[in-house]
Amino acid sequence: MAQKSYDKALFRLISILSMLTKDERPTISSLAEEFNVSKRTIQTDIYQRLRGWDITKDKFGRLVFRDGVDIFNAIGKFGRKGKRVVF
Predict the structure, then answer these.
(1) Which domains are seen in the chain, by residue range?
(2) Is residue 66 classed as helix, strand or coil in its secondary structure?
(3) 3-class DSSP state of 51
(4) Which residues form the Helix-turn-helix type domain (predicted)?
(5) Smallest Cα–Cα separation from 34: which of 57, 8, 5, 4?
(6) Do the beta carbons of residue 71 and residue 17 sit within 8 Å?
(7) Is residue 27 a contact partner of residue 62, using CB atoms and an 8 Å limit?
């Protein structure tokens, strides 16, 4: 069975979050090359699809989570239907 485009996008988004969690600090160019997509696609991933994850660039242009972002704590703040739970 052929892989659907949304499968590839989901894999890419999860991979990017995983890299940032491991403090790998990829660049937009390196991600585009790794996933064989355009830089524009990676920019869309970061600045639109992952906009709620507070991703920024360090002084060298590498992608990082802004100080204080805890991916595991953030996941726990979402309800069962994907709605944000207010504490």
Answers:
(1) 5-76 (1.10.10.10)
(2) coil
(3) helix
(4) 12-46
(5) 8
(6) yes
(7) yes
Residue 60, token pair as written in the block: 């060298």
SS3 category, 81: coil
Task: Check: CB of residue 50 under 8 Å from CB of residue 16.
Answer: yes
DSSP strand pairing (63-65 vs 55-57):
antiparallel
- Say what the pTM is: 0.76
Q: What would the pLDDT profile of 20-69 be if each residue is shown by its tens digit?
A: 999 999 999 999 999 999 999 999 999 999 998 989 999 999 999 988 67
Amino acid at the residue 62: R
Phi, psi at residue 27, to the nearest 5°? -100, 165
